[in-house]
From TrEMBL:
Protein name (database record): LOXH1 protein
Phylogenetic classification of the source organism: Eukaryota, Metazoa, Chordata, Craniata, Vertebrata
Gene3D superfamilies associated with the record: Catalase core domain
Gene that specifies this protein: Loxhd1
All residue ranges annotated as the PLAT domain in the record: 46-165, 176-266
SMART domains linked: LH2
Length: 266
């Protein structure tokens, strides 16, 4: 049904309640609003939020491709290139700047150390790495890796990769993963340019507002989009609120269905 000030009942935020827990996840919003919830093993996909700080010294920037490898108590990752940042600041690894990346992979357990470096390709290949910070919400941990050294063939010891051990491991709020699938209806003017959000309510409380957006042009007519988000574990879910802020030209939205996967074995 419509989430549009000029259509239907004029509401742009709606509450959906579960019709049950089922592998059949699609629910039609044309009739009585419903959302299906599926419980999934959380160990299959963990997000590691990686903040990389380039030093504020002359020549610190690098045009090389940077990679990272995480070593954990359960397993290690492969060498993962840091190619697309979350904060999208244009050129990456510029002097005095922090670039943020998300690595989605298996649960490797507590992180023991990291390997970080670059391919030494480009006109300005050398790099001065200040520090790396890794936050793992599903672990409730934040790891601090100070470096403050050159990764440069022509500086210091000439190495372009280095192993770093955490100097500090800080507790953070422990979150779980939710996967939200949203289907925009295939009717005239169904898409919206407004900012879409949702909030999950459960027996243990509610999440903060969760913004549903990525780099794509979201919520176009007939589109199916999947968003993975980390938020508080609210326990057994009894409803969600989903809507938009009414901003932009063409803000009205025809929402066909919502699917929610709670990535928890509980």
């Amino acid at each position: 049904r419509w989430l549009d000030k000029n259509e239907d009942d004029g509401q742009i935020v709606r509450e959906l309640v579960p019709a049950g827990e089922s592998p059949m996840l699609r629910t039609n919003c044309l009739a009585e609003p419903r959302v299906y919830v599926l419980y999934v093993d959380p160990t299959l996909d963990v997000s590691y939020h990686i903040s990389v700080k380039t030093g504020d010294v002359p020549g610190a920037s690098s045009d090389s491709k940077v990679f990272i490898k995480l070593y954990g108590e359960k397993a290690d990752t492969s060498k993962e290139p840091l190619l697309v940042s979350d904060n999208d600041l244009g050129n990456y690894f510029e002097r005095g700047r922090v670039d943020e990346f998300t690595l989605d992979t298996m649960d490797i357990g507590k992180i023991n150390r990291i390997l970080i470096g670059h391919d030494n390709v480009g006109l300005r290949s050398g790099w001065f790495l200040a520090s790396v910070q890794i936050t793992v919400p599903v672990q409730g941990r934040q790891y601090m890796f100070p470096c403050n050294r050159w990764l440069d063939k022509d500086e210091a010891d000439g190495r372009v990769e280095v192993e770093v051990y955490p100097s500090e491991i800080l507790p953070t709020e422990k979150l779980i993963n939710y996967e939200v699938t949203v289907v925009t209806g295939d009717v005239r003017a169904a898409g919206t340019n407004a900012k879409v959000f949702m909030q999950i309510y459960g027996e243990a409380g509610k999440t903060e507002l969760i913004i549903l957006e990525n780099r794509s042009n979201n919520f176009e007519r007939g589109a199916t989009e999947i968003f993975k988000r980390e938020a508080a574990d609210v326990g057994k879910i009894y409803k969600i609120r989903i809507g938009h802020d009414g901003s932009g030209i063409g803000d009205g939205w025809f929402l066909e269905s919502v699917t929610l996967k709670r990535l928890s074995s509980n």
